[in-house]
Design brief:
Layout lengths: L3 H10 L5 H4 L22 E5 L5 E8 L7 E7 L2 E8 L42 E2 L2 H10 L6 H4 L5 H13 L8 E9 L8 E14 L2 E12 L3 E13 L1 H23 L1
Antiparallel strand pairs: 1-2, 2-3, 3-4, 5-7, 6-9, 7-8, 8-9
Length: 264
């Protein structure tokens, strides 16, 4: 996910390449968990507005498996840009305890995103969030959700639960252009409008793959501080290789300028 104010500048930095070139296919595992208890949705075709004004289509094919898995393929302009998998877990284990992961503390002043600011072992938190009917309606309209159960039953959409993990990043560090490239989600219970949502998490890794700086963390979403409603593993490129390369080029340029000044 990228901030809207960063899109134009970032597109110039990557010389007009497609977003799919940044989020490599192997990092684009993003299951659409849409209903309670991890059950896969009967999702056959979904059309949503692409954030850059293009249309993205999502098609699902059922696999011959015991857990009724649904394989998802997301395309834009006939180019596959992501894949996903939704299924009913074969093990019916219960939800983790609400204290299964540590409570993070929001910083008074967010530091710049870095290897140390996003170091493994660090706990990321969010400001408590309560989703109301207006917030739900806006979200459902944005994703063009046609299923009426969320409005009729006053249920928070699982996509909004997943967004809590994005909040954990943006509320704890200052990010430049960044990309949410994948999540593994297991839903345990529905969330009703008006319930307070919080997040507990722990960073498990922060490394570099194909030039991208990638952070991964485990998280659990808590409703009203007493129910774990979802657990997830969240992966994001917090510093794309194009930005890293640009920073290196600018450092070399600055060094050359200083050297020329000294020689003069």
């Amino acid at each position: 996910m990228m901030g809207r104010n960063a899109l134009d500048a970032f597109r110039q930095q990557i010389d007009g390449r497609r977003m799919a070139d940044i989020a490599e296919t192997e990092h684009a595992y993003h299951p659409f968990a849409l209903v309670d208890h991890g059950q896969s949705a009967d999702l056959q075709s979904l059309h949503v507005p692409h954030r850059l004004g293009e249309i993205v289509s999502c098609a699902g094919d059922r696999l011959a498996s015991e857990n009724n898995a649904l394989e998802l393929c997301i395309e834009s302009n006939r180019v596959r840009c992501a894949t996903g998998l939704a299924f009913m877990p074969s093990d019916r284990r219960g939800a983790p305890a609400v204290d299964a992961l540590p409570v993070g503390k929001l910083p008074r002043e967010r530091p710049e995103a870095s290897e140390s600011a996003l170091a493994p072992g660090r706990a990321l938190s969010i400001a408590p969030l309560t989703i109301d009917r207006v917030m739900l309606s806006i979200y459902l309209d944005e994703i063009r959700e046609s299923v009426q159960i969320y409005r009729n039953e006053r249920l928070v959409h699982p996509g909004q639960i997943l967004r809590l993990a994005n909040l954990a990043l943006v509320q704890n560090v200052i990010l430049g252009p960044w990309i949410h490239v994948g999540s593994k989600v297991r839903n345990h219970a529905v969330v009703h409008l008006g319930e307070e949502l919080t997040l507990r998490s722990r960073i498990t890794s922060n490394g570099v793959s194909k030039g991208h700086s990638i952070v991964e963390f485990n998280a659990i979403a808590i409703a009203d501080r007493k129910r774990c409603v979802a657990e997830m593993t969240h992966v994001a490129i917090w510093r794309p290789r194009q930005v890293s390369g640009r920073a290196s080029d600018m450092s070399v340029f600055a060094a050359n300028v200083r050297l020329s000044s000294d020689c003069a």
